[in-house]
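S.,

Sequence below, as promised.
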Amino acid sequence: GITATSGERVYLTDAQNKYQASCLDGSPGAFYYRKGSGDGINKFHVFLEGGGACAGIEDPVINSLDSCVHRAGTSLGSSSSYPSTADFDSEYLSTNEETNPLTYNWNTIYVKYCDGSCYSSDNATV
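The prediction came back faster than expected:
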């Protein structure tokens, strides 16, 4: 059930319907939303869940990655088994001010990973 620290599941059905954005198995993407409070009510902390890329259709392209067909049958490729609420109240997503003094009372968006993508970046200023 919902507690003060649970996030509520939100399916990204508009993105799926308008732009065909979906998980590997065709289910809609999802995120969990936890409402902020106090002076954090207008601030947002967005967390992208990791999952690692999939590569290859039936067989993996390299041994360290799942094939996308295999991944589609897991929670890293399908939203079909996501519960209606999720508790991610720990570490830097904690609602405890001592544990997480910066964002403990901010609105928190926990974006679930299910599309097989890979994120990387490079900062040329460092």
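The beta strands are 6-11, 30-34, 44-48, 85-87, 107-111.

Coffee later?
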